[in-house]
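User: I'll paste a sequence; please echo it back and then give the predicted structure.

Assistant: Echoing your sequence first, then the prediction.
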Amino acid sequence: MTTATTTALPAAAAAHANADRLTPYALALPAAVLFGLLVLLPLALTAALSFQQYSHALGLQNTLTLASYAQVLGDAYYLEIFWRTGWVAALVTGLCMLIGAPEAVILSRMQPPWRSVCLLVILAPLLVSVVVRAFGWSLVLGPGGFVNQLFEWLGIGRQKMLYTPIAVVVALVHVMLPFMVIPVWTSLHKLDPQVENAALSLGASPATVLRRILLPQITPGLLSGGLIVFGLSASALAIPGLLGGRRLKMVATLIYDEYLHELNWPLGAALALVLLGVNLAVMLSYNAVLEGGYKKRLG
């Protein structure tokens, strides 16, 4: 073997090793570029827009200012809308947990073909437009709708539900429920049914089995489902706009009005970024609390 050949082999091996190290980055590059163009770039443009000056007489001006943020954070009107959006999203998340977790447990214990049928029933609403579902709920909850007819038959009398938080919460729970059921159902796939039977045979009560075996297993599903439901509920536009009306404002409908009706784009951009920040803060805090409790239970 010549000296040139001996020198070329380590060089080729080094080049091959470098190529292997760069392969994952090269494979991730298209997704990273797409993420940057579709997420980071619009977010950066929205942030830049939120610092621009706006006046009703002159429109947008190339002057940097914090006036939009000062208006959002210092006006009680906007703070009330943020508070309403927060408690509605939290209530929807809680109701989805209370309804979705038992539903997922029942679904996991069903046998074919009923499991597939029930799963199709749960996922079927996702195939229908949110706008169509919102109009459907407006008919059900309206003054002459099925619910008020039932109330009249029961002697309660008609109740105003349309264009109230009740209508918004009910419709959002209907829309968001699949996003809670599926993560919890997926978590239950990791649980061996024989573990529950073993605990019962050793004298554990059903409440103990639920608290010590079932709940720790579904906590990751509740965590991920809760994050999805809260984020989607806080940023929902169609349902609050159609079932909440013009008076029951939420942040997403307010952003829509500022962009398309008032044409105050900097204020709309500031509202959007504050909503994003609040969502991230709530979701990270929620994640930290539940993750800590989950790890503590598991030891």
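Residues 3-50 form the longest helix (48 residues). Strands lie at 52-55, 59-64.
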